[in-house]
Amino acid sequence: MATTKKKSTSKTTSVAKKPAKSTNFATAPINKSLSKEEKIALYSTIVGIRRFEERSLRAYNQGKIGGFLHLYIGQEAVATGIVSLMEENDHIITAYRDHGHALAVGMSMNECMAEMYGKHTGCSKGKGGSMHFFAPDKNYWGGHGIVAGQTPLGAGLAFALKYKGLKGCALAFLGDGAVNQGSFMETLNLVSLWNIPVVFVIENNGYSMGTSLKRSSAEENLAHRADGFDMEWEVCNGHDVFEVREVANRAMTRAREEMKPFLLEIRTYRYRGHSVADANHEKYRTKEEIEEYKRTKDPVNVIKQQLIADGTLTDAEAKRIDQEKKDEAEASAKFADESPVAPRSEIQTDVYWEVDNDTEGKLKGTHFFND
Amino acid sequence: MPLITYREAIKQALDEEIQRDENVCIMGEEVAQYNGAYKVTEGLWEKHGDKRLIDTPISEAAFSGLAIGASMLGIRPVVEMMFMSFSYVAIDQLFNNASFCRYMSGGLMNVPIVVRGPANGGTSVGATHSHTPENMVANHPGLKVVCPSNAYDAKGLMKAAIRDNDPVFVMENTLLYGEKWEVPEEEYIVELGVANVLKEGTDLTIVSHGRCAMISLQAAKTLEEEHDISVEVVDLRSIRPLDEETILKSVRKTHRVMLVEENKPFCGVDAQISHMIQLKAFDDLDAPIHRVSAIDAPNFYSKELEDWQIPNEERIIECALKVAE
Ligand SMILES: Cc1ncc(C[n+]2csc(CCOP(=O)(O)OP(=O)(O)O)c2C)c(N)n1
Ligand SMILES: [Mg+2]
């Protein structure tokens, strides 16, 4: 079982430091009920994120993508597992490492790749870039570039659900470095005080840029911070999508049913540098560490082996899906490359709602000051 | 028309909007059970209850961000800053998230929040509590900001701000809360982006906003009585959007202009207005544009000195005589 803490008044409750390694989460009820198609969809999403990001890395190295590119490679099962549990009134928000969450909610590779290419066909018309993908129609509220800045927004999404009497939860993702931002700690207090149905998901990949968890957090068990706010928490591994689903399901159900916040810490790993510009990532961690994770816990391999073992997929089918995703990613790069950039007139659209929507407010006073 | 205070006018606006739209709620420190640090929300919690009047912990970043997130799903929070100075600990939420989420999503969302609270010096509370950040807000495309100078405007602008679908800052003034003006009983709105000519005149234009507009009006009367100078006073009301036409119309009439604000001069609101006037009405000017701003230093604590530091009638008259010469 994953490490867990049920509400307890005793401060002496002992908790294991690490999530357990060898439970077969695939047989947990939330996973057992999955149809063959649903399981294949999980694999397909995980492999899709991997192939999309590999293709975007190539595009970046070809100079097609500007700014920063934070790859999610190694963490794919986290967003995939959690998003697969989302219901109609559930909402999601994350930081700048946002491609995996975007594809998992169903955004197309085309609109995502085009956004990174800075094209008009991108999800944000080229105004946001890699760190700022949005799809409110899919309950996906970004893509945020300031570390932890999205955490109070996530609380706000959940606040709105509660205000409107809707049964749902908001999922707010953050990194292991983001936990040390004041805005996040303020927000933990607020959501527990007000019983806001938000699930904070710390994707603990062990590093914030070049700083290891040991060097940034006094208490390495990040989920324990919830105790200070009388809030429930759990810790689990992030390489096995079935484990992620099993544990996240408890948190999300509790948020929806009991209107309570939850802090989930998911132990995961990123294979690449912090961003592609972080070429020296083998200076602050060893090659062996990276290789060991890839060998034993690669999320793509893990689910592939599981689905082959339980008869859901054959090796050939897995390869076919993989190839389809490679082709889709390749096609998205072509789409992005061939798309136009936005006309200059777009620089001053999407600034004010009242102006874009041609309301009477637009006619009153000057909104833009160019000279 | 009944005479009511600036404070009462804001409260009426909040009360009416809470009743009009079930998505309007007020949140901030001490706004509910304590009746507001400056009693602006007095009685509203008793009348509307916990859902609409929400006391927050002292966590400006968290509750500002929460309001922004909630507004993305259609809630229309009015966030009270006990002092606008305290918004500085929430700057990432207000100046990154409220202002840029719409843009960075290519227009897929909007953030209909109001951030309101007092933004003024002159009360001997020292530099940390005396900020006038309307210029900083206006420097962020995506945000709007208004500075009501009287009770009538405070009520009308507050209602417009709450109904606006973009984030709007309403800069109030603790020195005005207890002052009275005539405010009609019938419902009305003061639209954003429309300036108000407080007094007509022919020799000199004073452009001002917030409480300084009222001081300018007083100075204009003195200038007329004692110096025989006919002064026109333009109250901006709204900083962004900005009513450039009303300013230019007045400049074209008087050919002399001075600008009065409580902002610090460097990159203050009036730096922008001055630039705009020279660009669009250069040939109409018979004299250089002068400014009276807060004297360029952090706000002084001691009353005598702070009263001199922020614009007052004496400094305005002195400057006006120079411009009118
Ligand atoms: C307020 C702020 N400070 C610093 C940065 C620069 N920065 C971007 S990501 C990052 C590391 C964050 O690490 P973590 O929260 O663990 O997330 P991860 O990158 O591992 O997903 C830093 C320092 C920023 N974007 N915002
Ligand atoms: Mg990290």
Which keywords apply here?
heterodimer, A: 371 residues, alpha/beta, Rossmann fold, two-stranded antiparallel sheet, 8 strands, 42% helix, B: 325 residues, seven-stranded mixed beta sheet, five-stranded mixed beta sheet, 11 helices, binds thiamine diphosphate, binds magnesium ion
Termini separation of chain B: 40 Å
Radius of gyration of chain A: 21 Å
Helix content of chain B: 25-40%
Spatial ordering of strands, largest sheet of chain B: 3-2-4-5-7-6-12
CATH H-tier superfamily of the largest domain in chain B: Thiamin diphosphate (ThDP)-binding fold, Pyr/PP domains
Instruction: Give the tally of β-strands of chain B.
Output: 14
Please name the CATH topology of the largest domain in chain B: Rossmann fold
| Major β-sheet profile of chain B | 7 strands, mixed
Return the CATH topology of chain A: Rossmann fold
Number of helices of chain B: 11
Q: Supply the number of helical segments of chain A.
A: 14
Largest interface: A-B, 59 and 55 residues
**Rounded average pLDDT of chain B:** 98
In this structure, how is the largest beta sheet of chain A organized? 6 strands, mixed
What's the structural domain tally of chain B?
2
- SSE run of chain A: EHHHEHHHEHEEEHEHEHHHHH
Number of strands of chain A: 8
Task: Explain what this protein looks like in three dimensions.
The complex is a heterodimer of chains A (371) and B (325). Chain A has 14 helices and eight strands. By secondary structure, chain A is α/β, with parallel strands linked by helices. Chain A has one domain: Rossmann fold (3-Layer(aba) Sandwich). A six-stranded mixed sheet of chain A has the order 1-7-8-4-3-2, sandwiched between helices. In chain A, strand 7, helix 9 and strand 8 form a beta-alpha-beta unit. The longest helix of chain A is centred in the first third of the chain and has 26 residues. Chain A is globular, with a radius of gyration of 21 Å. Chain B has 325 residues and is an alpha/beta fold. In chain B, 38% of the residues lie in helices and 17% in strands. Chain B has a seven-stranded mixed sheet with strand order 3-2-4-5-7-6-12, with helices on both faces. In chain B, strands 9-11-10-13-14 form a five-stranded mixed sheet, with helices on both faces. In chain B, strands 1-8 form a two-stranded antiparallel sheet. In chain B, helix 1 packs parallel to helix 6, helix 3 runs parallel beside helix 4 and helix 7 packs across helix 11. Chain B is globular, with a radius of gyration of 19 Å. The mean pLDDT of chain B is 98. At the A-B interface, helix 6, helix 7 and helix 13 of A face helix 3, helix 4 and helix 9 of B. The complex binds thiamine diphosphate and magnesium ion. Magnesium ion binds next to strand 5 of chain A. The site of magnesium ion has 6 residues of chain A, from strand 5.
